[in-house]
Amino acid sequence: MTMPPPRRRARRGFTLIELLLVMVIIAVLAALVLPKLTGRGEEARISAAQSQINSMLSTALNVYEVDNGHHPSTAQGLAALRAQPSGAPEPKKWKGPYLDREVPLDPWQNEYVYRCPGTRNPDGYDLLSMGPDGQEGTEDDIGNW
After folding, report:
1. What integer pLDDT is reported at residue 33 of this predicted model?
2. Per DSSP, what are the bridge partners of residue 114?
3. C-alpha to C-alpha distance for 130 and 100, rounded to whole angstroms
4. Residues 51, 58: Cα–Cα separation, whole Å
5. Range 40-58 average pLDDT
6. Taking 90 as the threshold, does the pLDDT of residue 1 lie above it?
7. Cα(6)–Cα(80) distance, integer angstroms
8. Which is nearest to 61 in space by CA: 86, 96, 89?
9. What is the per-residue pLDDT across 78-119, written as a single tens digit (0 to 9) for each?
10. Count of alpha carbons within 13 angstroms of residue 79, beta-carbon side
């Protein structure tokens, strides 16, 4: 009786060509996707700053004004939303705190700028984030105007 020839082992692993092809495909996909994703983080921070200014902080300042007949002064600042301020103009009917937590920093970890009366809103207040560059008076400022 004759024995059949031994079978070759099944090939295992990938060839260099297959690995290079996969790497090229991944590089092409990354080149297409990454440019679309970059900048989204900055857009999210800008949206967060606008939301904090136009919703949370403005609402708290408006409730403070309803209770006391005026907004906090520039010197009293946003801290007047958490603790009853002293000094002029003294709040007669302070019913705070008007914020559940401490006054937040903007998304770039800077304090919000508050002025009352405002430069842009002389009959009200200016509330702004200095934006990504951290400098007031530049085009990337985000405010309540």
Report:
1. 76
2. 127
3. 24
4. 10
5. 88
6. no
7. 88
8. 96
9. 999 999 998 888 898 999 899 988 999 999 999 999 999 999
10. 8
As a whole number of angstroms, the distance between CA 128 and CA 54 comes to 10
> Of 87 and 126, which is predicted with more confidence?
126
Q: Any alpha helices (H) in 38-97, and if so which ranges? A: 40-51, 58-68
The two tokens of residue 46 are 């800008």
Which sequence spans correspond to the domains of the chain?
43-143
**Structure-token pair, residue 9:** 């082992």
Cα–Cα dist 101/48, whole Å: 17
Rounded to two decimals, what is the model's pTM? 0.71
Query: Which architecture, in CATH terms, is 43-143?
Result: 2-Layer Sandwich (3.30)
